[in-house]
Amino acid sequence: MSRKILHVVGAVATLAGLAGCAQSPESTVEKFYASVEKGEISEAKKVLSPQLSAFLGDQKLSAALAGETERISKCGGLKSIHAALDTKGEIAIGTTTVEYKGTCQARTEKTKLIKENGSWKITANK
Fold first, then answer.
1. PROSITE patterns, alphabetically (predicted)?
2. Of 41, 82, 32, 34, which Cα lies nearest the Cα of 61?
3. Helix, strand, coil proportions of the chain in percent (round to 5)?
């Protein structure tokens, strides 16, 4: 009987550990900027809401992300990303501050994410 209890406790601990690794809205924002910095446009698009992607269109979105990659490079790369988000249910709203390694001034942008099929996606602020 005690062996059975140990197996149950082990299973619960494993599930709790996996739940702790779940993607947060903040980590989604960080992943987005890290992907854009590296020029990984396809990876960056994966964390965008399909509605946002459809609204902008694939070519326009790809061009905008490539332009942002170039701008980040000219600014010396990313120093830090800080997302301050208020999460209520399946919506997270707040700001993201982007700091650069070079001389470019930090930027703070409004940020909104929605949870779609269990994953956080960046969407339009409207």
1. PROKAR_LIPOPROTEIN
2. 41
3. 50, 30, 20
pLDDT in tens, 49-104: 998 888 889 999 999 999 999 999 999 999 999 999 999 999 999 999 999 999 99
**Three-state DSSP class for 76?**
coil
2 located within any domain? no
Sign of CA dihedral 94, 29, 22, 123: positive
Cβ-contact 95, 106 below 8 angstroms:
no
Q: How many domains does the chain have?
A: 1
Token duo for residue 53: 């992607």
Nearest one of 47, 41, 9, 56 to 28, comparing CA atoms: 47
Distance CA 47, CA 27 (A): 10
pTM, entire model: 0.80
Q: Which domain holds residue 77?
A: 25-123
